[in-house]
Amino acid sequence: MSAQRDMKEKNPWHTPVTIIFSVIGVIAIVALVTVAVLQNRPLPQKYKYGIVLDAGSSHTALYIYEWPAEKDNNTGRVEQTLSCKVDGPGISSYASAPWKAGKSLTKCLEQARQKVPVKRHSETPLYLGATAGMRLLNLEDSSASTKVFQAVEEALQKFPFSFQGARILSGQEEGAFGWVTVNYLDDRLEQNLQTRGALDLGGASTQISFVSDNFDGSDSPDNAVAFRLYGNDYNLYTHSFLCYGKDQALRKTLAQQTKSGPGTILDPCFHPGYTETKNYSVLYDSPCVSDRKPQGAPATFNHTGKGNFSRCQEVVKRIFNFTECKYSQCSFNEVFQPRLQGPFGAFSAYYFVMNFLNLTDTSIPLEVVTERLSRYCATPWNQVKEQHPGVKLKYLAEYCFSGTYIVTLLTKGYNFTSENYPNIKFIKKIKGSDAGWTLGYMLNLTNMIPAEAPDSPPLPYAGYVSIVTVIALLLFVLFIFSLRPLWPRCSKHPQII
Ligand SMILES: O=P(O)(O)OP(=O)(O)OP(=O)(O)OC[C@H]1O[C@@H](n2cnc3c(O)ncnc32)[C@H](O)[C@@H]1O
Ligand SMILES: [Ca+2]
């Protein structure tokens, strides 16, 4: 018994001094780690917002973006938090009743008012950018386009956001901001990775934008956009083809077939069994075709489908001019285009159409794509309607043409081949945000992409806390050992007496 008591007395860990120091040490470490964790713990997130209205030729869409409030000019953090499709056609269609253009936007703006917290309303920038529909209206009737903008601005100013104006984007801006969006969402800019080209197919225009090593802008300055983003320089090639969006290209293709003003056209780009009576005045009511309106044509014509892919491709090819090129190389219509390079993202109508046709997988060889399109175009119209009861008839009737146009534009227009066709990815969204020019436009106007790479903390948060903990433990152990002289002496091999 007395021997056991002796042992207890001699155990150094049981002296009051050591116990007190140990308790203090443990409390100190816990306090240190708690303070480090609490101090660095992410606070409940506060967000800032930006709103962009994409006033396209076929429709308008509103997008709300949000980003953490403390990361205004930081990287890769802006995300789309709401999209709202405006009911009705694009604002350019309201030329004869401009006030309706303004009114059409209010429903989506009401949604935005609900979505953005009230205390952020007045600081939330609101932009409206119009694309090819308004470009065409402006060409056709600039005072009508001014009136549409006045009506739209009046409507937007009624909302509590910080309205920054409504304007027409140039084709270069539309192409370049689409490219910025895609590469920003893919984190390719911040990380200085190989960039992805952007292919945008709208209703009235189409854009191609990419970085090519053999393009510095000297060949064709109109197609060059220079950016310095996160400390890297980019010489972007971009071109927008007005009148080569899907709807205007269809008009051009029909115009090709109605040069002589026939009463009936047998159209290989529409399904067999499709037949509609159409108005010549409606078909030619666009600056893309108005100069070719046949003289003395009847008021209407019978538009009848024949469903033949290869003949459709022949007609579609005729809307491109491949004969003239004053540069080393061209896409079409005498437009310079450097050698295609890198991966591409194809969005808007490229995606809608290829998704409907089950052709978004670009590992499907081009020959198989054309075979499938041939079969699809040859399918009788009644059968197509039966197979897709929920699809809008206008879209359904046009998928054969649209698919043929996309394949022709990519291969004959831009010179994609069987080898580099798999470099294209058909995309709708990237990480929850729609691919399109709007995000790039807002990032640019809010200076949210810095020209130089931002400084980042040398350690990530978890690494920082771990290092603090390890050093604290080490200090504690050293501290205990420094108290060694105070430890009661004990023999290495206590003997039981
Ligand atoms: O860029 P611009 O030329 O101004 O036109 P937009 O912005 O209005 O054009 P979109 O990308 O919204 O749409 C491109 C085309 O795709 C059509 N479209 C939209 N949704 C579609 C769908 O589900 N299936 C087929 N076509 C669709 C639409 O009518 C247009 O003709
Ligand atoms: Ca568009």
UniProtKB/TrEMBL annotation:
Bilayer topology annotation: Multi-pass membrane protein
Requisite cofactors: Ca(2+); Mg(2+)
Transmembrane segments: 12-38, 461-483
Signal peptide positions on this chain: none
Location within or outside the cell: Membrane, Caveola; Membrane
Highest taxon in the source lineage: Eukaryota
InterPro entries named in the record: GDA1_CD39_NTPase
UniProt: ATP binding residues: 203-207
MF GO annotations: apyrase activity; ATP binding; GDP phosphatase activity; ribonucleoside triphosphate phosphatase activity; UDP phosphatase activity
GO cellular component: caveola
Annotated active site: 174 (proton acceptor)
GO biological process: nucleoside diphosphate catabolic process
Catalytic activity: UTP + 2 H2O = UMP + 2 phosphate + 2 H(+); ADP + H2O = AMP + phosphate + H(+); CTP + H2O = CDP + phosphate + H(+); ITP + H2O = IDP + phosphate + H(+)
UniProt EC number: 3.6.1.5
Alphabetically ordered keywords of this record: ATP-binding, Calcium, Disulfide bond, Glycoprotein, Hydrolase, Magnesium, Membrane, Nucleotide-binding, Transmembrane, Transmembrane helix
Pfam families: GDA1_CD39
Oligomer status and interactors: Homodimer; disulfide-linked.
Role noted for this protein: Catalyzes the hydrolysis of both di- and triphosphate nucleotides (NDPs and NTPs) and hydrolyze NTPs to nucleotide monophosphates (NMPs) in two distinct successive phosphate-releasing steps, with NDPs as intermediates and participates in the regulation of extracellular levels of nucleotides. By hydrolyzing proinflammatory ATP and platelet-activating ADP to AMP, it blocks platelet aggregation and supports blood flow.
Family: Belongs to the GDA1/CD39 NTPase family.
Protein name, UniProt field: Ectonucleoside triphosphate diphosphohydrolase 1
